[in-house]
Write a structure and sequence with these properties.
7 helices; two-stranded antiparallel ribbon; nine-stranded mixed sheet; alpha/beta; Rossmann fold; about 30% helix
């Protein structure tokens, strides 16, 4: 049985309890998150739990990787307290405002710098973006296969991965050789709780920070300026609602309803 080198990509996201405090930068059209507490993206916690489960089953090493500002160190220490062997922060002022493609490029650069790996695990979507794009994009930058929406992962002899991928009406069973990028859904497991004994250990653990210099990435394709997709504008739509009760025989009501919908331009 071969030991596994697992990389788990986690994204610190704004704590939903503080979403009402998030504002938009009028110039960059990006979210202003300064002072907003962060949590580990919920589906990324499932990805981490799966990485830890596979390590316990096969042996190996679990590395947590995150592209974020330095203020998220507590989230990375939480990942270590949950059982990750190490955590590395990819952080540089130039990375700010990145879309999914620019983010995936930096994450892939971090994974390449780590060296040998068998599995890259991510949550299928993030709580704040919900695009589902980062996992597949990371795999493209790494030039390796990917499978999304995994609900069950089985590793065979450390060289083959069998994945049940959820679909609208069931699941697809696929097999792929390592290395591979996998994204997971919440049905895959129940994340464990942090043991108090591991918290103090996590506080003493060194967390490396890799900047543009260490990653050797192209500054033209990172951050806001390197993002091909950018927000043009965000606004709150004006809500106008009014109700009207139609009474009478069904045929008459139906005819009247169609007339009113035509007048409103709905049909």
């Amino acid at each position: 049985m071969s030991a596994l080198n697992v990389v788990v990509c986690i994204k610190p996201v704004p704590d939903p309890q503080h979403w009402t405090k998030i504002t938009l930068d009028p110039e960059t059209k990006t979210l202003k998150r300064k002072g907003i507490p962060t949590i580990i993206n919920p589906l990324d916690k499932h990805a981490l739990e799966e990485g830890l489960r596979l390590k316990e089953e096969h042996g190996g090493h679990v590395t947590v990787l995150s592209m974020a500002p330095p203020t998220v160190m507590n989230n990375l220490r939480e990942a270590i307290a949950l059982g990750a062997d190490e955590a590395i922060l990819l952080s540089d002022p130039q990375f700010a405002g990145a879309d999914t493609l620019a983010t995936s490029y930096v994450l892939a650069a971090g994974i390449k710098k780590l060296g040998k790996f068998d599995l890259v695990l991510c949550g299928d979507q993030s709580l704040d973006g919900s695009t589902g794009q980062v996992g597949p994009e990371v795999s493209e930058f790494l030039s390796i296969p990917h499978i999304t929406r995994g609900r069950k992962i089985t590793v065979i002899d450390g060289k083959l991965v069998r994945v049940e991928s959820t679909t609208e009406h069931g699941h697809i069973l696929m097999e792929v050789p390592t290395p591979v990028v996998l994204t997971v859904v919440k049905e895959i497991n129940t994340p464990r709780h942090v043991h108090l004994a591991r918290i103090s250990e996590a506080m003493r653990k060194e967390i490396k920070t890799w900047t543009m210099k260490e990653l050797r990435v192209d500054q033209d394709i990172v951050g806001l300026s390197g993002s091909p997709t950018q927000v043009v504008n965000i606004f709150m739509p004006e809500m106008k609602r009014r109700g009207e009760i139609l009474e009478g025989e069904p045929k008459i009501i139906a005819k009247l309803l169609v007339e009113k919908l035509l007048q409103q331009g709905v049909i």
